[in-house]
UniProtKB/TrEMBL annotation:
SUPFAM superfamilies: UDP-Glycosyltransferase/glycogen phosphorylase. It comes from the Bacteria. The keyword Transferase applies. Keywords: Transferase. It holds the Pfam family Glyco_trans_1_3. This is Glycosyl transferase. GO terms for molecular function: glycosyltransferase activity.
Length: 377
């Protein structure tokens, strides 16, 4: 069996939940794994009992539901200044593990170390849907798309063995000979839920800064809302239809399964899990994060929800969303409830087989046994 390094972006919990879902299956098939990551993702993996090789995490700084470019650059300045030293240290640690394959979920540093060692790389994420597929785009988003493509190409591995994309929408591939597009990875905790359509609406924001207006907006609706990741205001008693909850995985999953709909930022993981459970969505893409804008555009195009772009949420937006719930639910009946987990595992196994039998970019690839000998010398 193979030794696999699995590196993941440290921003948010979505990468970690996807990685854990696939890693558990790979282990059951006998593969040995080493995790690399930082930030929130590292915390999630360690809380699940995993050992993680720490890698500095590149951060996105958000305020007012918008990515702050200059603040983001400042937040990452120290990591960027130490890049060569960090890369040297990481290369040495990976060499000691003697990996046969690196899987990266949008982590920037580890693929560079793998390239130094001649270890093939599978780029497995959702972000590269922006650069690896073709889609129509309103003119007002062209600049955002161009900047996103530049950032993604700086982070993504330069010469991957393969690109594996996971998505709830399926635009044409730019390079189908080296790219595979599969449905979303759905963790087992979600697959085991039995969804019902209750009365409450689940509300989740990825960062509470800049969305302090939400309680006042939602209080104007005669509907109960359950809010996560948003601290209650001092006058929370004025909002009897709002329930503020602290982070709790079990409670969150229960509330998601029982919600009649979801209001959230436009991150890929929560959208995918809500759609899998048949929940219509009202999304508020973080401005300046084009991937979220693209998620929202396709969500609306497919009639499974509504999006509010480039401005604050208003009571009339929520009312319109509630009025259209029957339509969104009718469209969700046609949404395929099939996770991409097995397709992802099949792709990984095929690549491992390919590494033993075929040439990679015109060069003979060492077998797994020869790889072991190479790192033993």
């Amino acid at each position: 069996m193979a030794r696999i390094v699995y590196a993941l972006s440290g921003q948010g919990r979505g990468h970690a939940s996807r990685v854990l879902a696939i890693a558990r299956e790979l282990r059951q098939r006998g593969h040995e794994l080493l995790f690399c990551g930082g930030g929130t993702a590292c915390d999630v993996l360690q809380a699940s009992g995993e050992t993680v090789l720490p890698v500095p995490s590149l951060r996105q700084v958000l305020h007012g539901n918008r990515m702050q470019l200059l603040a983001t650059l400042r937040a990452n300045a120290t990591t960027l200044r130490k890049l060569r030293t960090l890369l040297d240290e990481l290369t040495e640690k990976l060499s000691a593990f003697r990996p046969h394959l690196l899987i990266t979920d949008f982590e920037a540093l580890t693929p560079r170390a793998a390239e130094r060692l001649g270890v093939p790389v599978l780029s497995f994420n959702h972000q590269q849907i922006v650069t690896e597929t073709r889609y129509p785009l309103p003119l007002r988003y062209w600049l955002d798309a161009a900047l996103a493509c530049l950032a993604i190409r700086l982070i993504a591995p330069k010469r991957p063995l393969h690109v594996l994309l996971t998505s709830f929408f399926f635009p044409p591939l730019r390079r189908p000979e080296r790219t595979t597009l599969i449905p979303p990875i759905i963790r087992s905790e979600i697959q085991q839920l039995r969804p019902v359509s209750g009365e409450a609406i689940l509300v989740y924001v990825n960062q509470p800064e800049g969305v302090g207006h939400l309680p006042q907006v939602l209080a104007q609706l005669a509907v109960p809302f359950i809010l996560y990741n948003l601290p209650p205001p001092e006058d929370a008693a004025r909002y009897p239809n709002l329930i503020f909850k602290k982070p709790s995985l079990d409670e969150f999953l229960h509330d998601l399964a029982c919600a009649q709909a979801v209001v959230c930022t436009a991150g890929f993981t929560l959208i995918s899990e809500a759609l899998y459970l048949g929940k219509p969505l009202l999304v508020m893409p973080n401005r300046g994060i084009f991937e979220q804008t693209l998620n929202a555009l396709f969500l609306e195009r497919d009639g499974m929800g509504m999006a509010v772009y480039d401005r604050l949420l208003r009571p009339e937006d929520v009312r319109r969303f509630l009025e259209n719930l029957p339509y969104y639910r009718s469209r969700l009946w046609a949404y395929p409830k099939r996770p991409g987990n097995e397709a992802a595992l099949a792709c990984i196994e095929q690549l491992l087989l390919r590494l033993e039998r075929r040439a990679y970019r015109g060069k003979r690839v060492q077998t797994l046994h020869e790889n072991i000998l190479r790192f033993s010398v």
